[in-house]
Every structure is written in structure tokens, then in C-alpha cells.
Amino acid sequence: MDGAVYRFGQYALDADRRRLSRGGQQVDVDPRALELLCLLVEHRDRVVSEDELRDRMGRGRTVSETTLATWLRTARLAIGDSDTGQQLIRTVSPHSHQFVATTTVVPGTPLSPPGAAPVTEADHEVIRFCRSVDGTRIAYALTGEGPPLVKTANWLTHLDLDRTNPMWAHWFDGLTRGRQLIRYDERGCGLSEWTVPSFTLDDLVDDLDSVVDAAGLDRFPLLGVSQGGAVAVAYAARRPERVSHLILTSAYARGLQIRAGSDAERDAAEVDLNIARAGWRSQDSSFLRYFASQFLADATPAEWDAFAAYQRQTTSPANGLRFLEEFTRIDVSGIARDVICPTLIIHARDDARVPVAQALELATLIPDSRLILLESRNHLFTADDPAWPTFLTHLYKFLSE
Questions:
Q1: Can you tell me the distance from the alpha carbon of 69 to that of 72, in angstroms, rounded to the nearest whole number?
Q2: pLDDT of residue 218
Q3: Strands 25-27, 19-22: parallel, antiparallel or unpaired by DSSP?
Q4: 3-class DSSP state for residue 117?
Q5: 180 near 145, Cβ under 8 Å?
Q6: What is the pLDDT at residue 315?
Q7: Domain segments of the chain: what residues?
Q8: Which residue(s) pair with 348 in the sheet?
Q9: What's the pTM?
């Protein structure tokens, strides 16, 4: 039905606009998972085979069984369903599915003429690819318009999924206000090459250098989040002529194993790494939920589960372990003093993942730096965290100087 809105339970699906809402609030969903959901809902009167889903969604390209399963799982999670529960999307046979929820169809409002709907800066995005020094393919994206703001890659990213992921979507809206945001996927994850020869700090700095070269940038402000902060520090120390401003948030100079100074701290670091190893090797959501709770301390269990599911989509279990082991050994404390540009360090006072002492260490090491502590427990600021708009205010004020 043209222009129809499908209602089931607390959810409303506007198929024309590809928009899902729950209780009147829009639900952020991966576009491919949302397209799959629309197909199943529109054809809810019958069983839809996976071959048909591949044909419709592939548009001439091959869609693997694993990819389709990921989209299906994501669609289920978006509407409160699961692969085991199957209350709304039922797997009728190993390779066919049907939407079985009681559904009401109501007329939707007509689509606006082209150009009539408001468009944010973050709607303008181009994904491109370049090669790092060792030949590794790196995916990068340019979003919005205006002076550049480069963001280093961090745990974990996927250029195509992040735009609609609740953990990251507000970052794009916030960081593209009168700016062009340049971001990229780390080697080993997202749309960048997953099979890579090495994964050192120097490699990560090389990747960043290749991205800004490909984007045609000479001098720019650089934002580093979490372990991306260490990469940003290393880059600013190596290429001081290119970085005009450095912004570090939730960052650290030394990884967990490097900064462990006592037997108790070393034991705690090893336990943390072993929990993460167990989670990635087994793909057990309980382990990954623990990990997610450190990044998003004030989130709900459902949000932790969504973050855990998102992590599994961004990289392979082997690479996930490789990331963790490398990040615990990062150390830029010896080169942080070589950063000469103005530096803003913003950190949550009660960061559950990276203690505030790490922000204090960075502020002590970097000569022209200032430190701002925000009242929050989240390692990554969420959209509803009171610290989020405060972070943006400080960032834009700093960039205007």
C-alpha cells in the first residue's frame, strides 16, 4: 500500500520513508536491516525466502549468508525480537522467514517533494578508499560542509553502520555543525581491510596520514576519542606542521597493561583482558555486555546488548582480540611532550573505562594543554548524557580560538 504506515505493538513502520518508531520516538536502525524489515512486513501474508531477500537487497551484488543473518538479527533487535524468541519475525524453515506480528495498516502522509524535507549537514556523506603505506585499504568518509575536523579511528567503528547506531549517530550531528567531518575505519574493522600484515601504533599513524593526504588536507584540527587519542597524540608529535588544534576526550597516554604499576593493578589488567578474550572467542553476550557496561556506564542492559551486537558486526573475533591486546600496550607518554599545538583535554570525572588520572597525565605531559572534567560516568558520551552538549560547547569554543 503506497504511503502506508504499519503498526504492530508499540512500533510504527513507515516503509516509504524507511522510518521505524517506538512510542513516537524514532528507532535508529542499520539501513539494510530496516530495508529487510520493510520487505518482510510488506509481504507478511507469505513466507519470504532468503534467495528472494538476497535478490531484492543485493541489487546485482552478492549477499552472503552471514551478511543476511546479521541484517535479520539487527532487524529483530530493533523491534524487540530475537533469533531465539522469534515472536515477530519467524524462521519458518532454515532459509525462509515471515513477519507474524498482528499488524494494523494506516494511511501515511504523502512524501514531501524533492528538496522539501530539512537536511542536516550530516546527511551529506561520501565514503572513499585509500591505501596506507603498507598497502592496507582504508575506508574514510567526508560528512558535512565547512572547515575540516578530522577524527581518528577508535574502538570500534563501521562507517556504514555508525550513522544509524545510537552510540554514534549524535556525534555526527554534533561534529558537523558548520564543519566537514573526516573520519575513517581502523585497519582490521568496518569497511577497511580486515586482513592486515601488522597492527602497531606506527601503522595507525600511517593510516591517518594516508587518509588526510587522500582527503587533500594540509592543516586541520584533530579529534581523538579513547585509544584514538593516543593515535592523535602520536600523529601531532610526528607531523606538528599539520595539526592546528588537538582535542582529546576519554583518552589515555598509556594502555592498561603499561600503566599497571603494582601487582594488584597488573592482575586487574590481566583479568580485564581475559574477560574480553572470553567474550570475543565465545561471542557470549554476557562477557561482551560487561565490556559494553564500561564504555556506557549509565546505559540500560538493552543498550549494552545493542552495543555488544554492534561490536560483533564491526570486525572478526580474531581482530577484536588483536585490537584489545594492542591497545593495552599503547604508550605515547614519551612523545606527548613533542606536541606543540594547543590541546584541549576533556574527560568524564568518573569514566568507568579510563580513569581520570590518565587525563591528568596527558595534561601534565602536553605543554600547551588545558583540561576540562565533566560530570559523567560514561567513557563515550551518550546522546542523553548532560555532559554531551557541554562537550560540544567546549569543543567549538576551542576551535574558534
A1: 5
A2: 94
A3: antiparallel
A4: coil
A5: yes
A6: 87
A7: 4-107, 121-258+326-399, 259-325
A8: 374
A9: 0.70
Instruction: Compute CA 51 distance to the chain's CA centroid, rounded to the nearest angstrom.
Output: 30
- Output the nine-digit C-alpha cell for 99: 513477519
Looking at residue 381, its pLDDT comes to 93
**One-letter identity of residue 317:** P
For residue 92, give the DSSP letter: E
Strands (E) in 132-219, as ranges, are 137-143, 148-151, 180-184
Q: Which fold has domain 121-258+326-399?
A: Rossmann fold (3.40.50)
121-258+326-399: same fold as 4-107? no
Structural class in CATH, domain 4-107: mainly alpha
Task: Go through 78-115 and write b for each residue having 16 or more CB atoms within 10 A of its CB, e for each that does not.
Answer: bbebeeeeeebbbeeeeebbbbebeeeeeebeeeeeee
pLDDT profile of the chain (401 residues), mean per 10:
77 83 77 88 94 81 83 91 91 94 75 38 71 94 93 89 81 91 94 90 97 95 98 98 98 92 82 77 72 84 81 84 89 98 98 94 98 95 92 96 89
> What is the spatial distance between Cα 58 and Cα 50, in angstroms, rounded to a whole number?
11
pLDDT at position 161: 83
Q: Which of 161, 213, 229, 228 is nearest to 190 (CA)?
A: 161
**Cell 601488522 sits on residue:** 198
Residue whose entry in the numeric block shows the C-alpha cell 593493578: 265
Per-residue HEC secondary structure of 195-234 comes to CCCCCCHHHHHHHHHHHHHHCCCCCEEEEEECHHHHHHHH
Residue pointed to by grid coordinates 582529546: 248
CB 98, CB 171: distance < 8 Å: no
In terms of C-beta density within 10 A (0-12 exposed, 13-18 middle, 19 or more buried), how is residue 239 classed? middle
| pLDDT score recorded for residue 59 | 62
DSSP state at residue 146: S
Bridge partners, residue 127, by sequence? 141
Cell 554476557: give the residue. Answer: 286
24-30 contacts, C-beta under 8 A, 24 or more apart: 27/78, 27/79, 28/164, 28/165, 28/166, 28/169, 29/74, 29/75, 29/78, 29/164, 30/71, 30/74, 30/160, 30/161, 30/164, 30/165
